[in-house]
Amino acid sequence: MSVDGTNFQVEESGKQWFSHKFKKPGVHYEVAVAIKSGHIVSIKGPLLCGEWPDITTFLTALVHYLDDGERAEADDGCIGEAPAHVKTPNMFTRKEEGLAMQQRVRNRHETVDKRFKQWGCLKQ
Question: Is position 124 within any domain?
Answer without folding.
Answer: no
